[in-house]
Specification:
Rossmann fold, 10 helices, five-stranded parallel beta sheet, single chain, alpha/beta, five-stranded antiparallel beta sheet, 2 domains
């Protein structure tokens, strides 16, 4: 019996590695407190519904998968719950507590443009925990010595010969990827937006005035890009926090990216006091 449990644990670990390597999303359910189940028992469920592992009770497995898929829709990283909260029919296990954990790669951010705003956004996002790629066609703006602190050592720096190719390669399959286009001109914006739209990342934002961003969006609309795709582009990028300095603008941009990823409302947390 101990061998089977070890094999199950190994299988769960193997599947977690596969999920991360493929850029997929899954939920890991772990028994953390129970009189009737083995503490530490695990069940992994992909978004497709495919599972591996065993919590020790078939009915609990089914209920945990259903609750786990609902958990993924809420975008939380982790949440513990008593079985009675999501499976009222399992009276004998009602006091058992399980932990739901989101399994996916760390969020990625591709920043196109290494000027003052782009560099500030890159540093801030890396500090928050994003895996960041910074792209510019000026090699001196993405020189490693400019991003040499311990918090910046994992930033990928790309000196682009082609904005389109560099950004398209950086975005990959688009899963869990946000793109911030903060270049210095219309031509660069257009090339980057074409690449981003073709890759379909989770978030695309573009810096600039309403006039500048509308010029770029209208140009791509004339080229035949899908209207619904273009509507999803956050342009001008960021939340309105009254930002002035490059660092404040970077904060406004990252706040919107996090809000989109987490499903936030961007409303003040104190708003409930005024309602």
């Amino acid at each position: 019996m101990a061998v089977n449990k070890t094999q199950t644990d190994t299988s769960v670990s193997d599947y977690i590695r596969i999920v991360l390597e493929k850029g997929l999303t899954a939920v890991l359910v772990t028994v953390i407190e129970s009189r009737d189940l083995k503490t530490g028992a695990k069940l992994l469920a992909k978004q497709s519904g495919e599972t591996i592992g065993d919590l020790g009770d078939p009915s609990l497995n089914d209920a945990a998968v259903r609750e786990g898929l609902r958990f993924l829709l809420r975008r939380d990283d982790a949440r513990s719950a008593r079985v009675s909260e999501f499976a009222t029919d399992l009276a004998s296990l009602s006091d058992s507590i399980v932990l739901f954990e989101r399994i996916e790669r760390e969020p990625r951010l591709v920043v196109a443009g290494a000027g003052h705003v782009g560099a500030s956004l890159t540093r801030l996002a890396a500090l928050v925990g994003y895996r960041v790629t910074l792209i510019d066609d000026r090699a001196e703006f993405v020189a490693p010595e400019l991003f040499a602190s311990p918090a910046e050592r994992d930033i990928s720096l790309v000196a682009a010969e082609s904005w389109f190719e560099a950004l398209r390669n950086a975005v990959g399959n688009g899963r869990a990827v946000s793109v911030a286009i903060v270049t210095r001109g219309h031509k660069q914006d257009e090339d980057c937006l074409r690449a981003a739209l073709s890759a379909k990342p989770d978030y695309i934002g573009m810096i600039g005035s309403k006039r500048r961003t509308n010029i770029v969006l209208d140009k791509l609309r004339e080229e035949g890009f899908d209207q619904e795709q273009l509507k999803k582009v956050r342009a001008p990028i960021g939340l309105d926090i009254g930002a002035v300095s490059p660092e404040e603008v970077a904060l406004a941009i990252l706040a919107e990216i996090v809000c989109e990823r987490r499903g936030g409302s961007s409303a003040p947390l104190s708003a409930w006091r005024r309602s």
